[in-house]
Structures
1.
Amino acid sequence: MTAKISFRNVTKTYAVAGQAPFNAIEDFNLDVADGEFVTVVGPSGCGKSTALNVAAGLVRPSSGGITVDGARVEGPGPERGVIFQQYALFPWLTVRQNVEFGLRIAGHRRDERRRIADHFIDLVGLTDFAGALPKTLSGGMKQRCAIARAYAVNPKILLMDEPFGALDALTRVQLQDQLLAMWSRERRTVVFITHDVDEAVYLANRVVVMAARPGRLHRVVDVDLPFPRTEDIRLSAAFAALRNEVWRSVYHPALN
Ligand SMILES: Nc1ncnc2c1ncn2[C@@H]1O[C@H](COP(=O)(O)OP(=O)(O)OP(=O)(O)O)[C@@H](O)[C@H]1O
């Protein structure tokens, strides 16, 4: 496997005044292949966001390191798009202007910006809302806009931290399908954090299960379900078996 992203012995130590230093993640090793969809689950505080933020270049590891295409990550970069739970749209810009924003920074011409933005706005199903301001959109629509914006600047890697965590169950399922449809069309490498074991299994090629105190990689579960993922797969016995396996690893790590 040629690794797109490699975590090598990554440890992040936090020293909070008045408390002993502790490792938010400890000796974390993981290779993510080009075009792979990896989900990360684990109990609250096990270091999922810390690991993702190290990959994003937003947090510097205390020891160890991370490479993208073999080059050491020293900070944020345009080849890594980050999507958080809070949509982080510019409230004074329309959907289209939000999606065009990164393209403007990257120096794309006006007509090109428009063409690329409209392509991704269409892919996420927001064409009728291209001229709308974020405050007039539902949570699911805002997150679709954030996904279109992240995709538009053509990052090779998408780092997603609980992107659907604030959404209702039905919207969440719809966005999972939309994200997978985009992933199969515009293949990127995705690392996706979630608290939802079903979501983790449904989306992924592999599920990374982390454990807490100290935050560390507990095990990796291969998801050998076919793509495209469908409702039939979601309701299948094979899906249930994988979900149960991941669930046990998260909630009973000593046994699994
Ligand atoms: N800047 C910081 N300073 C001190 N401690 C921090 C800092 N950032 C995170 N931590 C601690 O590091 C640990 C891991 O946090 P992190 O947010 O990575 O976990 P998580 O698995 O993403 O949690 P959750 O699922 O609740 O979002 C937690 O104990 C957290 O309190």
2.
Amino acid sequence: MDRGTIGAIRITPLAFADPPLLNAAGVHEPHVLRALVEIDVADGRGGTVTGLGECAGHAWQLDWLTLIAPRLLGTSVFDVHRLADRVDACLTGADVDTAPDAAWRRWSDRSPEASLGIAPIPAPAFDRRRVHAPLEVACHDAAGRLLGVRVVDLLGGARRESVEYAGYLFYKLAGHPDADGAVTPDAWGEALDAEGIVAQAEALVAAHGFASLKLKGGVFAPEVEVATIHALRRRFPAMPLRLDPNAAWSVPTAVAAAAQLLGVVEYLEDPVAGLEPMAEVARATGIPLATNMCVVLTEHLAPALRLGSVSIVLGDHHYWGVLRGTLALDTACHALGFGLSMHSNSHLGVSLAAMTHVCAASHVDHAADTHYPWNAADDIVAPGTLALVDGAVRLPDGPGLGVELDRAVVERLHRAYLDLGREHRQDERYAEALGVTSVTGPLPRW
Ligand SMILES: O=C([O-])C(=O)C[C@H](O)[C@@H](O)C(=O)[O-]
Ligand SMILES: [Mg+2]
């Protein structure tokens, strides 16, 4: 087979441990569902190299990947446009059996929850990109390994050798209850007030040297969260701080809270939902606003600019058109005068490596979000190549993403997935089961 030809694609669902972190949608469950994508590629000398990708492990996303994988065999990892077109053809219905009894339709019937977040045909662009992401990352990894160059060099070269990340603070419960409802506090302990969050920040800064901090809000009344930010400011006088209530506030609430945060936070992220309401808050307060909720597609940039909805856009290669798409966003933000930061969700080291390469190639001008410290103990990446030190991750030296798998951990997390028997993320349902109903129900909550 020619060098670069895709010979096999493996999709391995994983479940890894997660603490009971609170957000506007509920409480993180004991396990995060994730998927590892491995693409075996001919090296042109009779051998193969394997490229790695990682994405969320929702049932609909896994099933789409499974449906698409055979359609990509025989294409080349250097032919990323063709690969993207094939993914699109499948997800828009041009290359899939759309009959009412087509086999893929079993997914939507599997359980009532399966309809949550499912992308029906034609799948919206946002969901098409979420399916495409781990495939393109794995192709870049394989291409880099074949050529002996880093992914960042395939993306045009490194603008920096080290990428800064923000410490991601969460209000959290002491621990997950066991089968009898008994709670043994985890190593992080409880953080349900300003004091707990400051202690959590001290621990994260001591462990990883973070020089920026982000607080996940939308959990308590805005005055409590504003007071928490002020407590962080007193403890870390020079640290850039941000608060993200995930649209849990109404416009008047956000305007009042922003008055207390102006000059204290580097930005306020998604206090309200939608481009127009965000613009209202920005106009009324002058506070820098950031988003990973109201600007998630290229076509949102023009109205965001016209309305003045945000100053900073959060990219994320898992849905912004993968690595090349994230760099296109970077180019647009740079030209239009938006700042660029990066969104994250619970993830492992393959995604951290991909994020580090794409950030290194970009003009990102705010420390990127990462959930990594919360989940690093279960990382599938073998130790030694990725480390969060001095608030940053250095680009690994090796070709491609520069990381290798720890097969024993992959196997353990795959078994955990099979044992779990869960197919969706259900923060709200878990919060209800725990009786933490203050974080359930429709938004805005304040
Ligand atoms: O910036 C954000 O909106 C996020 O990080 C979204 C995540 O789902 C976060 O809220 C979480 O992990 O609970
Ligand atoms: Mg956000």
